[in-house]
Give the backbone structure.
Amino acid sequence: MTRKVFAKLMALFVLLLVFETAAMELILRRMMAQSSADTLHEVGRDAIWSGVIALLIALPIAAWVASRITARLQRVMEFAGRIAEGDLKARLEYGGGDEISEMEKALNKTAERLGNSFAEIESSRRELATMLDSMQEAVVAVSADGQVRWSNAVMKKMTGTEIRAGRPLVHSVRAPELLDCIREAQGRGEVQYGRTSSLAPGRIFEISAAPLPEGGAIAVLHDVTRVEAAEQSRRDFIANVSHELRTPLTSIQGYVETLVDAPNPDPAMTKDFLNVILKNATRMNRLTEDLLALATIESPDYRLATQPATASGMVRDAIDALGGLVVDSGIDLQYAGAPDATVMVDPDAMNQVFGNLIENAVKYGKAGKKIKVGARALDNEIEFFVQDFGPGIASEHLARIFERFYRVDKARSREAGGTGLGLAIVKHVVQAHGGRVRAESELGSGTTFLFTLPASTEKRREEMPADSAARARVES
Ligand SMILES: Nc1ncnc2c1ncn2[C@@H]1O[C@H](COP(=O)(O)OP(=O)(O)OP(=O)(O)O)[C@@H](O)[C@H]1O
Ligand SMILES: [Mg+2]
């Protein structure tokens, strides 16, 4: 029992004592005034009554005080129960200034502090979770016995499976390299590095796994598929360039050596040899020019010198410029119609596009005897096309022909003087203009190369009726 409550009870007993003493004094006085047997009897009776009355007064007061204390302690217990269940917003009403209310005050303060600490921890946890989810890397943490403690959103996205906390990682992820790396980090107690391609189809990841103090480990997975592809493409490119340069160079070297070694070379043979040397030198020149063109277009500093041109004008210009190519081949180069819509283009770059596509149609589709060049208007763009009626391209090659150095028939293309860079240049030029390029083909029926260019908004405004054009100007 607390001191103040004890003092209250003591005060009550003192009161009763005073009451009892006063009653006894009164009785004794009466005894002294009338000391007869009857009076003694009466005095005894009065003493009993006064004791009974004192008890009757004291008992309910004591019961009331005890029930109040019990009710307050009950509230404190309920409050403690709510805190234990995590309700840190619960508060006790206090008052009275005794020890119980002091305790209630202290408990409220503790609950408030706990609430603030939990809020801070929760906010840090959310910050950490947001940071982990916004990372490009996949992250997973496991406990000492290999159970997932947590993983970020990227991990779930990359693996395509729900990685549930509390379950063994091996149940969700079947990448032995990742599991080995984590196990080794746990075993050796130091960061381990690895690589896996079995986590998600077609993707390569670099793994770094670090041990955690209580025996678990945390693994970070970095997707290097693109880097790998770029590296592979760089290696392929160097190999292709070397090969393409070496072939004509070897040929030139061979013919020159023969001429140098021949004591009295026959003039006719010398001319033939020199022609071969010239052909190979031209080929090398063409290759370096194409490589340079490609490097320029792919460079981040590449800027188009654009100017407005109508689709129909572009198609007609292309046919006029390349008409000479078809003169001897007996191919009919036809204008297949084009809208007068305006597009913003770099004329030199566009000459390269039409030049490559029409030259290809002549080279590879001459059996069809006809080439159609035209354009049509789509929603917000103009689609240009070059169509031939030659042998066509098999579907397995169709998806790859825009790659640098890719040729369906290497020998035939090389024979025709091709380097395999033409369509790569076309693709990059069209993309630099904000368009897309594709090819459609059916074996035996021919091939159509199509590319889009955004329709010029300036022209569309000019084409609008006067009031709506004015409105467009205001809105913009
Ligand atoms: N119209 C077409 N019909 C059939 N095959 C084609 C056609 N156009 C291109 N190809 C195929 O696509 C390959 C790639 O063409 P691309 O223009 O890139 O290279 P190239 O013509 O061989 O060389 P370059 O254009 O650099 O002189 C060609 O080698 C050829 O096999
Ligand atoms: Mg070509």
Observations:
- The longest strand covers residues 446-454.
